[in-house]
Amino acid sequence: MSGGALVENKRIRHGAHLLAGEVGYLLLGQEMTVSQAVSPVSLAKRYNTKTGRNISGKEVFERAQAGDEVAQAEVEQAMQTLATLLYDLQYSFDPELFIIGGAISKNEQLLPLLRAHLAKIKEHVEIADVMPEITVCKYHEQANLLGAAINFEHKMEAWKLCIHFQRISFGEQRHLVHNQKVTLKNAIKMFLTIGMRKIQMNFTLA
Q1: pLDDT tens digits, residue range 12-34?
Q2: Helical packing angle, 69-93 and 57-65, nearest 10°
Q3: Which residues pair with 6 in a beta bridge?
Q4: Tens digit of pLDDT for each residue in 105-137?
Q5: pTM above the 0.85 mark?
Q6: How far apart are CA 6 and CA 36, in angstroms?
Q7: Integer angstrom CA distances of residue 1 from 9, 57, 82, 140
Q8: Is the dihedral of CA 77, 79, 82, 86 positive or negative?
């Protein structure tokens, strides 16, 4: 599954249903979702179905570079879909930067291929004077795991703070807010941002 996150003013936007940034669900005028069209796993599955082989998404890129026409067609479709997605998001939200993670971000072909497809889009849409700025993330395929761990840690800090707040007086609460360390202040901000109800729900279901 290809997911994502929308960061504005250094804060993640969650959306009404916690789906903000889940671009993998988009269709972009085709039968497949973005996730189905772009993810290396889906890419390999389509290639293997057509060729009878059993290779990975990384190997599909390698075969495409070596001249395999089936692999080239699959990579072309995936990059065209991803470039179209980035273009549409640029003119929907106008972000400063797109940061791509996952295992595919380790592929040295990724950025040159995407930039080539974005250049074709710019040629086709003459009024488009701003092209998406793209790069790859530092932690590649580990980024989502690290993000999930940090998110869980923040929620647990906020949950503990919520329980503590319920047990102390209002005066003690004010003293706590103004005198504790930065990490605790961050937990307070987290609590106020996502709300006690959501924290309790996540804690209950965990």
Answers
A1: 888 888 888 888 888 987 788 99
A2: 110
A3: 13
A4: 889 999 999 999 999 999 999 898 999 999 998
A5: no
A6: 21
A7: 26, 14, 14, 15
A8: negative
pLDDT digit string (tens) for 67-93? 999 999 999 999 999 999 999 999 999
CB 121 within 8 A of CB 128: yes
How many Cβ atoms sit within 10 Å of the Cβ of residue 37? Answer: 26
- Helix (H) / strand (E) containing 150: helix 143-167
End-to-end CA distance of the chain: 22
- Do the beta carbons of residue 157 and residue 190 sit within 8 Å? yes
DSSP notation for 69-132: HHHHHHHHHHHHHHHHHHHHHHHHH--S-EEE-SGGGG-TTHHHHHHHHHHHHHHHSTT-----
Look at 101-105, 137-141, 188-192 and tell me which has the smallest mean pLDDT.
188-192
